[in-house]
Design brief:
The chain contains twelve helices and two strands, in the order H-H-H-H-H-H-H-H-E-E-H-H-H-H. With 296 residues, it is mainly α. It binds 2-acetamido-2-deoxy-beta-D-glucopyranose (3 copies) and zinc ion. The site of one 2-acetamido-2-deoxy-beta-D-glucopyranose (NAG) has 5 residues, from loops. One of its GO terms (biological process) is DNA catabolic process.
């Protein structure tokens, strides 16, 4: 989430507005905790000092608070990569063009993955990895236009938002009807069922979602950012920004956004589980040609 006066104004109207919202980040975390190997669960619980089922969900939004704390500002640009593409005509992410000297979400995933591997049980790098694998799956975290949508005003059910926070929070709140960890847990269960259930809507496709290797974490993060950025052209700004500026989005725009939000949450959760499995155990059952773990 980028900082603009419009964002702050909308945050005042809707005080719970955070990047991918707390519900979005917690949903990704719950999906990941449901798919991770037992060794990875144990490792994360020990690292975070939390033996409860909420061990990943409760820390998933920590990075959004930390960046406003004293000494946390350096981590602000790590939450996105500002792709300087031309939506809706062409979408793409280019590391050399789009990742600034201050860093970006791709360099941050590389950095905190590396720290987690070289300094096992270091809690902050784990919290950042959990958060950034969520953020990178939100299309407007991989887009420069209008400060990642922060300067485009829209309405959802009559409430004023900016486009970035609509995708982070408003659509998820409208879809789930809640704003709590319990909301996220219920939402994650329905998405997990699509991945794990026999005949689940994502059962077949999800076997191909994770094709990444720790040997090239830059390529992994760039692939996730590029795939996610495609939705800026197809769903976020399909007719260009002027078509949605100041408009109510609760009709066909929202209907088309929901499947994207759900798919991106599910992909983020599975990829986070597999990424942490690789870091902790060196292997994952969630990659290509591997069976997805049965529901526990
Ligand atoms: C890597 O993370 C450390 C610890 O937060 C930070 O000090 C450093 O600036 C980061 N480096 C890069 C290249 O992001
Ligand atoms: C929003 O950002 C775009 C480019 O990123 C710019 O062309 C436009 O003028 C900005 N709009 C406002 C209202 O600041
Ligand atoms: C969309 O929002 C408007 C304005 O609040 C409201 O009148 C309308 O009933 C909403 N439509 C849907 C489909 O929710
Ligand atoms: Zn964030």
């Amino acid at each position: 989430m980028h900082i603009t006066p419009i964002l702050l104004a909308s945050a005042a109207v809707v005080p719970t507005a955070l990047a991918w919202g707390t519900v979005g980040h917690a949903t990704v975390a719950y999906i990941a905790s449901g798919l991770m190997k037992p060794e990875t669960v144990a490792y994360c619980k020990k690292t975070l000092g939390d033996d409860s089922d909420e061990f990943l969900a409760t820390i998933a939004s920590w990075a959004d608070a930390f960046r406003y704390e004293p000494g946390g500002a350096f981590s602000m640009p790590f939450h996105w990569i500002d792709a300087i593409d031309r939506p809706p005509y062409s979408c793409d992410v280019d590391y050399d063009r789009d990742c600034t000297a201050e860093g970006c979400i791709v360099s941050a995933i590389m950095n905190y993955t590396n720290i987690q591997r070289t300094q096992p049980y270091e809690p902050m790098s784990l919290k950042w990895v959990v958060h950034f694998l969520g953020d990178i799956h939100q299309p407007l975290h991989d887009e420069n236009y209008g400060a990642g949508g922060n300067n485009i005003t829209v309405f959802v059910d009559g409430v004023k938002w900016n486009l970035h926070s609509a995708w982070d929070t408003a659509f998820i709140t409208k879809l789930t009807g809640g704003t709590t960890l319990a909301t996220a847990k219920a939402f994650s269960s329905s998405l997990l069922a699509r991945i794990q259930g026999s005949g689940g809507a994502y059962a077949a496709a999800s076997k191909k979602w994770f094709r990444a290797s720790l040997k090239d974490s830059k390529a992994a993060a760039m692939a996730w950012a590029t795939e996610t950025n495609d939705y800026v052209c197809s769903n976020v700004l399909p007719e260009g920004p002027l078509e949605i500026q100041g408009k109510e989005l609760n009709g066909t725009y929202y209907q088309a956004a929901v499947p994207v939000v759900e798919l991106q949450m599910a992909k983020a959760g599975l990829r986070l589980a597999a990424w942490l499995d690789l870091i902790v155990t060196g292997g994952t059952p969630l990659g290509p040609n591997c069976k997805v773990r049965p529901a526990r």
